[in-house]
Amino acid sequence: MPTRPYVIDEMISAKTIAARVEALAKEIHDTFRDTDKLVVVGLLRGSFVFIADMVRELDLPVEVDFIEATSYGDSTESSREVRILKDLRGEIHGRDVLVVEDIVDTGYTLQHVVGLLRARAPKRLKTVALLDKPTRREVDIKADWTGFEIPDEFVVGYGIDYAQRNRNLPFIGAVRFLEP
Ligand code: IMP
Q1: What is the pLDDT of residue 179?
Q2: Buried-most residue among 20, 79, 93, 160 (CB within 10 A)?
């Protein structure tokens, strides 16, 4: 889909992200230190960089699985209707689960995925989101761990896209449109 011309203003540097991921991993490790195996579930596609860094900081036996949900299409506005495009490969019944999300915005995606996974009766289910835009929230949900709270800006980088672009930026940047 064609996009309007835009520039990207750096908001969170790669170094700052790395330090925060390390700190989050320590807290997550403390919570799950007695686990026999932690199933780390990445929400595709925006969390793929975050989950890759997160599992390498977690000194625990982990299994990695993915679920793909969509609410945005190629626009910058949530449609509020969450669809599951790809489900987990493995069973999570009786298992320890960590859901890894890139951004909690309106909250519909995380709410939907958590509801779906809780219905499968995991032993423990926790959530971590790299970014949170609290002023955009429309449903009452908050991740158990959050990397950074950010203002209501459309962001890209570190796995996060705008119309499938800019996922490969090492930092988080705000999209600034050049035309009204
Ligand atoms: P929610 O259902 O509104 O909370 O939206 C969550 C999903 O929307 C995230 O997992 C992202 O994929 C996407 N999203 C929300 N805000 C942004 C943004 O600023 N840039 C890119 N994607 C976003």
Answers
A1: 78
A2: 160
With CA atoms as reference, report the closest residue to 131 among 179, 90, 165, 171.
171
Query: Does the global pTM surpass 0.85?
Result: yes
Q: Which two tokens stand for residue 110?
A: 């995380």
Spell out which residues line ligand 1, taking CB within 6 angstroms.
Answer: 43, 46, 71-72, 78, 101-110, 154-155, 160
Average pLDDT in the chain: 94
Rounded to whole angstroms, the Cα distance separating 115 from 118 reads: 5
- Mean pLDDT computed over 44-64: 97
**Residue 121 burial class via C-beta count within 10 angstroms: exposed 0-12, middle 13-18, buried 19 and up:** exposed
73: left (phi over 0), alpha (psi -120 to 50) or beta: left
Using H for helix, E for strand and C for coil, what is the string for 132-144?
A: ECHHHCCCCCCCC
In terms of DSSP H, where are the helices of the chain?
A: 14-31, 48-57, 108-118
Centre of ligand 1 to C-alpha 33, Å, is 30
Structural domains of the chain sorted by starting position, each given as residue range(s) with its CATH number in brackets: 14-152 (3.40.50.2020)
